[in-house]
Amino acid sequence: MKNSKLSERVTELRNRKGFSQEVLAEDSGLSLRTIQRIENGETTPRGDTLQRIAKGLGVTSEELIDWKLEKNDSYLALLNISALSFIIFPLLGIIIPIVMWISKRKEVSKVDKIGKQVINFQITWCLFIFLIYIFSFLSFMFHLSIFPRITLFRILMTGAFLFLFNIIQVIMNTLKVKKGRHARYYLSIPFLR
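Now predict its structure.
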């Protein structure tokens, strides 16, 4: 991001709140000179400085950086619901969200974060299902008695439970995002960070 865009955003938000540079410096715990250098585009705040300015302005650091991104809850909901394409073919539940995530992650606010959550969840889900069916196949074909109480039926029921769990997670998070609330996918491995 260019210094001028971030400096404009900080100045705009500060003025909108009715803060002077001194008040922002005090609220953020930064020096007045630092605030002046940021607003003049002489430096770009990173890490802790960015978080302090965002806190002083009452916004998140993501909102401060991504202020030019379009807010589009409908697209976020569509991104979430696209994960249900796994019903047709398991890998579609990964491929379609990846395409949607890549195509809009620099244009729509929160697409990057939500897209990664959806993709991580679907990859994790596919791995679990794959392992369950491989284990089922091996135990059925070779009559493995590693776990004598685990029958093929129980293994397949676990797979069906995971299938249903996936559908419920996707639908619940789609509804949350549509209402502008935070989506959270449980039991997912963070492959994309």
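The chain has two domains: 3-65, 73-178.
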